[in-house]
Amino acid sequence: MFVRTASERDLETIKALLADTWHATYDAIYGVERVDEITAEWHSLASLKARLTRPSSEFLVADDGKTIAGMAFAAASGDAKTVMLHQLYVLPRHQRAGVGRLLLDEIEQCFPEARMLRLEVEEANAGAIAFYEANGFAHAGATANCGADQSGIPALIFEKKLG
Q1: Buried b / exposed e across 101-140, counting CB within 10 Å, b at 16+?
Q2: Is the pTM of this model over 0.90?
C-alpha cells in the first residue's frame, strides 16, 4: 500500500469509498436516508473536484495498484500553523491494517510549518476516537456543526501538537 496525491481520475472511486465508509459507520447513528443525504451533498463529484485545487491543502489516497483503500483531505489555516483534517476514511475491509496510519503520517509530513493538527469526529464513532487518541490526539472541545456551516451535526474536536 502506498500513499499518493489524488487526481481527477480517482474521484468516482473516492466517492464510492466515502459512501461505503459512511454507511458502514453512520447508518446506525443517523439512519440510511440521512447518510444518503449527507454523502450526496458533502461527497459529490463537484465537492471532491474542488478539493483537488484548494490552496494550502492535500488530498491523498492509499492505493495498492488495484484498490484505493483510503483517503484523506486536510487544509492549512491562513497562517499555516493549524491544519484541519477534514477527512480520513478507510474502506471497512481495510480498517485496522495500518492504512489510516499511513494516511495520517503523510498528512503530517505535508504541512512542515504546522504546529497543530485539528479534526472533528462524531462522538458516537468510538472506533475513530480510539484511532485518533492512539495516534496522539487529545479532546479539545466540541462543535454543534461538524464539517459544514449549519450542518446541525454535533462533533467532538480533537487536536495533536506537531513539530
Answers
A1: ebbbebbbebbeebebbbbbbbeebeebbebbeeeebeee
A2: yes
